[in-house]
Amino acid sequence: MRSRRALKSAGALGLLALAATGCSGSRLGLPEPISVQGERILHLWQGSWIAAFAVGGVVWGLIIWAVLFHRKRSDDLPPQVRYNMPIEILYTAVPFVIIAVLFYFTARDENFVEKTTDNPAVVVDVTGYQWSWQFDYKEGDKTVATVTGVPVAPNGPAPGKPVMVVPVGEKVRVRLHANDVIHSFWVPALIYKKDVMPGYTNEFEFTATKTGTYEGRCAELCGVDHSKMLFQLRVVKPETYQKFIADSKQALAAGGGK
């Protein structure tokens, strides 16, 4: 009886811990997402952990049950059976069901995150080069604003980093280019990164949900000053973004740059 009560208590504590993990909003190591796509990735991550905790709880429960209730009590040999067909079907079918469910949600969310639209509100051509970034804002085939950076020491001043400005709540398409080696565009707050490859244009879209300034960097070892490939993503209100574009157009018209 005592061992049975202990088993029930352990099971209750495990369920409580699982429920607390699922309901507390814990990001389980991921940063707070700032985009619609990042939220979807976070939910997939949390769901995968909940599934892992559930499977682990069942496995550990069976192990504890076997240890407590099927431990050796005498020298008599227990009844021997060659197989148990229902159990064998169960432990063959259940893993396939788990894999199928995880595959479905992963494929669904991957399609959502990688989806591009016909008419995004903002298009930015991002060029990675040894060892910084250039952001070209496009209207059709015309460049209306350009931001170019220089390599910045990892602990150097923030003003030295190139800044990619985007509006909150609007669809932004990022087109990635490289002219030298492979780089990787990574903003941790987006919970997303994508390779920047010479001779091939990668692209993705995101819709920011929070204003603020977020750090970005190259996530692919690309040479001696790889650690200096830093930039910032600045999410601003739409009217602030429109002013940024208007000021850039004026600067270009006057023969300057931004």
TrEMBL record:
The record's GO molecular-function terms, alphabetically, read: copper ion binding; cytochrome-c oxidase activity; oxidoreductase activity
Q: How does it sit in the membrane?
A: Multi-pass membrane protein
Indicate yes or no for the key word Acyltransferase.
no
Q: List, alphabetically, the Gene3D superfamilies matched.
A: 1.10.287.90, Cupredoxins - blue copper proteins (2.60.40.420)
The EC number on file is 7.1.1.9
Q: What class of enzyme is it?
A: translocase
Q: Its principal location?
A: membrane
Key words of the record: Copper, Electron transport, Membrane, Metal-binding, Respiratory chain, Translocase, Transmembrane, Transmembrane helix, Transport
Q: Which reaction does it catalyse?
A: 4 Fe(II)-[cytochrome c] + O2 + 8 H(+)(in) = 4 Fe(III)-[cytochrome c] + 2 H2O + 4 H(+)(out)
Q: Where in this chain does the record put each Cytochrome oxidase subunit II transmembrane region profile domain?
A: 22-117
Q: Where is the signal peptide?
A: none
What Gene Ontology terms for biological process does this UniProt record contain? ATP synthesis coupled electron transport
SUPFAM superfamilies for the chain? Cupredoxins (SSF49503), Cytochrome c oxidase subunit II-like, transmembrane region (SSF81464)
State any GO CC term.
membrane
State its location(s): Membrane
What domain of life? Answer: Bacteria
For this protein, the parts annotated as crossing the membrane are 49-68, 89-107
Q: Which InterPro entries match?
A: CcO_II, CcO_II-like_C, Copper_CuA, Cupredoxin, Cyt_c_oxidase_su2, Cyt_c_oxidase_su2_TM_dom, Cyt_c_oxidase_su2_TM_sf
Which purpose does this protein serve, as stated in its record?
A: Subunits I and II form the functional core of the enzyme complex. Electrons originating in cytochrome c are transferred via heme a and Cu(A) to the binuclear center formed by heme a3 and Cu(B).
Which family does the UniProt entry place this protein in?
A: Belongs to the cytochrome c oxidase subunit 2 family.
Output this protein's name. cytochrome-c oxidase
